[in-house]
Write a structure and sequence with these properties.
heterodimer, A: 720 residues, alpha+beta, 7-stranded mixed β-sheet, globular, B: 219 residues, alpha/beta, Rossmann fold, 9-stranded mixed β-sheet, 5 helices, 11 strands
Chain lengths: 720, 219
């Protein structure tokens, strides 16, 4: 190989020179033939987590509820009563920017497969979306396509989308974030199925859609920054078929429930390569695979493309030969094919055949366990606090409500089927999603991460990504049990980005430990960088919580005229924002230990029958949160006082505040809890009909609703 | 013991299990009717064609399902006067199978829509014994729920009392004359776009769905 040929090869397979050296050393020779494709796929950032593995070990903390965590397709926690849930969050950022509809749709499909691969029936979907400014190039079409893709896939496959978060900021103008989360339920009789191949002589079976050229090199594409030519990468985006996925869900769950399979793995990033190599490496066995037996969409697809294809809705399973017939019967009944590709052989090597020729024989561990692991240099975290206070806070509630950042998201979630499955107790209208478990208990789900905080302080933002959604659960009487995360960052080769990554990961890990709610699954998406511009570091999270009963859960909007409104504040950090981009100044420091103790007190209040409605004060501060608690008729009269001395104080954000409303006597119930935790509580007003008064400023509720509801139309005139 | 309630299951049907639970909730016995099989109508007390999607709604909503073997038996059941309920996609299937008049086309807003709506009972039939004009609240979730029928046929439907439910306040899909549900001439085959099985308990946001699903108890 000449120098030029080598350079071309490395470019084509997106491998570095150092990695080429590692390959030579591991193999004892130059890589040959399809080996290039294998290394390219499995050593991509997307598959190998080579820049993040060192730091992800910091999520090692586990609680007694954890049954499965990192290393499997999704984490699983035990809920007691014979019920368990699997959940995970994953990014599909790059494909969604290139081809919004299919990118988002296949993101949903992929995360669902991670869940049902384990034997859990998917019961809920959620999505965390970060878009650029509405007026940015293509943005309106991207928003339209992403939402339609999620809706088109999730609705058809029959899993309700129950909650979400949508952010807008210029740092996402050229690199949007589309993170999908799925939750699956195991009932008492459902086994947890893992992906480690076992049993020499067992068969390797391919199930699902046929293999085409779509998504070839998708994993390595997702591991690269974007340049000017992102549109030319469109052919690397996969095409989804939710109907096929639905058939796969039903048939796979059936074969697992009947104990017909030894191991099963979905073909996600890097397709059949990653699924087969990971199954073999985990099981410590070898595999003999006949690639010419892979069902093809087009007979001209060759072995290398088969290995790299990311065609959707495909699964690989291992079964005992005597169970093959029963497996095929199930899949045929569901209109699917199950083809035998090969068998499990004595380890450690995988043998790949193409029409009787052995084209590759390699130890899968070279590609999985021996993948590069980088300790990327990073700048130690220092808070980027430039100012302690801003000159003015000229924000007005009316402007907030009609801003892209603050207006109603109904246009988005109205396109999602939020009730299929007949378990939805609270839908996207609410501050938390609640699904009713078969035992009658409630499973709560909230997403987190506020990019506005990440922009000023990655450590604080990391803590908040764990604490804020957990507080929302607690305020409804749900105990946070576990977290999943989707760590969206820019280029890890830049020390300042890596510094934010490390700070956020350490903060998330610390918060989860303090709350006894471990991080049990997740995904890292690096290289969210276009033309040298990095996105806001965005460690999105999903937190799952449990409540023993679905009776008497506090509402998110006021319930009774005349109820008293209590503000309960942990006086730690105070923000002052000067614009919708919310480049904030702030003062004070967060005490994570104190925050987690306070959270448990909030949880106890969330269970109190005295609380008729609750809400955590979040973006834009108290005034905005009070508006969000107003119903069609019921508003609030809130006075100024120690909690807000000047009108501008209603628009300061603090870590943390919770609003509670309920019949007279509520404050007396909160006060002792406040005393125990160094927090403060005040009765700040009462629920009233028709208006929202903040101090002397009284606003007509109807007018506010109009602004809040028409805001979307104002920013996306082409979409409504 | 009363006869079971047959629930039709096509490839890709996704509200099948929800209807199953709703039927069990009424202390009745549900039984699957698989798309590829035929059945004996008299073995069942009533039938539900559930919603969601069937065959991915490829070609046209309900078009592929309408041609499956199970529909042959369902047509026999309908002719015998047994009660048949179509929900959402089931409504589309029954129209495609010509057990009901009209068709369901893309929502006026072009987008899928999930929300709670208010319905008004126009004519009672086998599937509802409320007073005419009664109002209930149910959730809708569909992309192609806009009922359309030729004007002459619409006039005949009105004369025969085939309009079952109309949207009482907001029409989520732009259907002709706000129609949300219709019946056949004999009034044993009825279908609606909203999902009664998603409104069986207060915790679901309301239990008005019982006003429809409860008819199974009388079947």
């Amino acid at each position: 190989m000449t120098e030029q040929e080598l350079a071309d090869k490395l470019k084509k397979y997106r491998l570095s020179r150092g990695e080429y050296g590692m390959m030579q050393k591991l193999l004892g020779r130059d890589p040959q033939g399809v080996e290039w494709a294998l290394f390219s796929a499995l050593w991509s950032e997307h598959c190998s987590y080579k820049s993040s593995r060192v730091h992800l070990k910091k999520f090692a903390f586990r609680s007694s509820r954890v049954l499965q965590s990192m290393g499997e397709n999704a984490g699983v926690i035990d809920l007691g009563h014979g019920e368990k849930v699997a959940f995970k969050m994953e990014s599909h950022n790059h494909p969604s920017f290139i081809e919004p509809y299919q990118g988002a749709a296949t993101g949903v499909g992929g995360i669902l497969r991670d869940i049902f691969t384990m034997g859990a029936r998917p019961i809920a979907l959620a999505n965390y979306l970060c878009f650029g400014r509405p007026q940015a190039e293509r943005m309106s079409a991207i928003v339209d396509g992403v939402v339609a893709g999620i809706s088109g896939y999730g609705n058809c496959v029959g899993v309700p989308t129950v909650t979400g978060q949508t952010e807008f900021h210029e740092s996402y103008d050229k690199n949007v974030l589309v993170n999908a989360l799925a939750v699956g339920l195991f009932t008492e009789s459902d086994p947890i199925v893992t992906s480690n191949a076992r049993g020499v002589g067992n068969l390797v079976v391919y199930v699902g859609a046929k293999t085409g050229r779509d998504g070839v090199h998708g994993a390595s594409m997702a591991s690269e920054a974007f340049g000017e030519d992102s549109a030319s990468k469109r052919p690397t985006v996969q095409i989804g078929d939710p109907f096929y996925e639905k058939l796969l869900i039903e048939s796979c769950l059936e074969v697992m429930k009947e104990n017909l399979v030894v191991a099963i793995q979905d073909m996600g990033a890097a397709g059949i390569t990653s699924s087969s190599f990971e199954m073999a490496a985990k099981g410590g066995v070898g595999l003999r695979l006949h690639l010419d037996q892979v069902p093809l969409r087009d007979s001209s697809v060759g072995p290398e493309e088969i290995l790299l294809s990311e065609s959707q809705e495909r699964m690989l399973l291992v079964c005992e030969p005597k169970k093959l017939e029963a497996i095929q019967e199930v899949f045929h009944r569901w209109g699917l094919d199950a083809s035998v590709l090969g068998e499990v052989i004595k380890g450690p090597e995988i043998e790949l055949f193409w029409k009787k020729d052995l084209i590759c024989k390699i130890d899968p561990k070279l590609l999985t366990d021996h993948a590069p692991m980088y300790e990327r240099p990073y700048e130690p975290w220092v808070p980027k606090r430039k100012r302690d206070a801003l000159e003015t806070t000229a924000l007005k509630l009316e402007e907030l409500l009609s801003s892209a950042e603050g207006c109603s998201r109904r246009w988005i979630y109205q396109q999602y089927d939020q009730r299929v499955g007949a378990k939805t107790v609270r839908d996207c209208d609410d501050s938390i999603a609640i699904q009713r478990l078969p035992s009658g208990r409630g499973l709560g789900l909230v997403l987190g991460c506020r990019p506005s905080l990440m922009r000023v302080d990655a450590q604080l933002g990391g803590y908040d990504a764990a604490f804020y959604p957990s507080l929302e659960l607690a305020a409804k009487g749900f105990q946070p049990l576990a977290l999943t995360d989707c760590l969206n960052f820019g280029n890890p080769e830049k020390p300042e980005i890596m510094g934010e990554f490390v700070a956020a990961v350490e903060a998330l890990a610390d918060a989860s430990k303090l709350m006894n709610a471990p991080v049990i699954s997740g995904n890292v998406s690096f290289y969210n960088e276009t033309l040298n511009r990095n996105i806001t570091s965005t460690p999105a999270t999903g937190v799952v919580g449990l409540r023993d009963s679905i009776e008497g859960i506090p509402r998110s909007q006021f319930v009774n005229d005349g109820d008293e409104i209590v503000l309960w504040r942990l006086p730690a950090v105070k923000f002052t924002s000067d614009q919708f981009g919310r480049e904030a100044a702030f003062s004070g420091a967060l005490d994570p230990e104190m925050t987690s103790r306070w959270l448990m007190e909030v949880f106890q209040m969330g269970l109190s029958k005295h609380v008729s409605a609750s809400r955590v004060v979040g973006k834009f501060g108290l005034g905005y949160a009070l508006y969000r608690m107003c119903g069609e008729e019921l508003g609030a009269k809130v006075a100024t006082g120690a909690w807000a001395e000047a009108p501008g104080d209603f628009y300061q954000e603090r870590l943390y505040e919770v609003l509670l409303s309920g019949p007279a006597g509520l404050l007396e119930e909160v006060t002792p809890r406040a005393g125990r935790t160094g927090s403060e509580a005040w009765k700040i007003g009462t629920v009233t009909k028709g208006v929202l008064s903040l101090g002397s400023d009284t606003k007509d509720l109807k007018g506010l609703h109009e602004l809040y509801r028409s805001g979307w139309r104002k920013h996306f005139p082409g979409l409504s | 013991m009363s006869k079971p309630v047959g629930i039709v299951r096509f490839l890709g049907t996704n509200c099948d299990r929800d209807v199953w639970e709703a039927v069990e909730n009424l202390d009745l016995t549900p039984q699957w009717l698989w798309h590829a099989d035929t059945f004996t109508p008299d073995d069942y007390s009533a039938f539900v064609v559930p919603g969601g999607f069937s065959y991915g709604d490829y070609l046209r909503c309900g078009a592929l399902a309408a041609k499956s073997p199970v529909m042959q038996s369902l047509k026999e059941a309908a002719e015998k006067g047994l009660p048949v309920l179509g929900i959402c996609n089931g409504f589309q299937v029954l129209c495609e199978a010509q057990l009901l008049p009209g068709a369901l086309v893309r929502n006026e807003g072009r987008k899928f829509v999930d929300k709670w709506v208010e319905l008004k009972l126009e004519n009672s039939n086998a599937w509802s014994n409320l007073e005419r004009g009664a109002k209930i609240r149910l959730p809708v979730a569909h992309g192609e729920g806009r009922f359309y029928v030729e004007p002459a046929e619409l006039t005949r439907m009105k004369e025969r009392g085939q309009i079952w439910w109309t949207y009482a306040s907001e029409n989520p899909n732009g259907s002709v004359e706000n129609i949300a549900g219709v019946s056949n001439i004999q009034k044993n085959v009825c279908a609606l776009m909203p999902h009664p099985e998603r409104a069986m308990h207060e915790w679901m946001g309301g239990d008005d769905g019982r006003a429809i699903m409860g008819a199974l108890l009388r079947a």
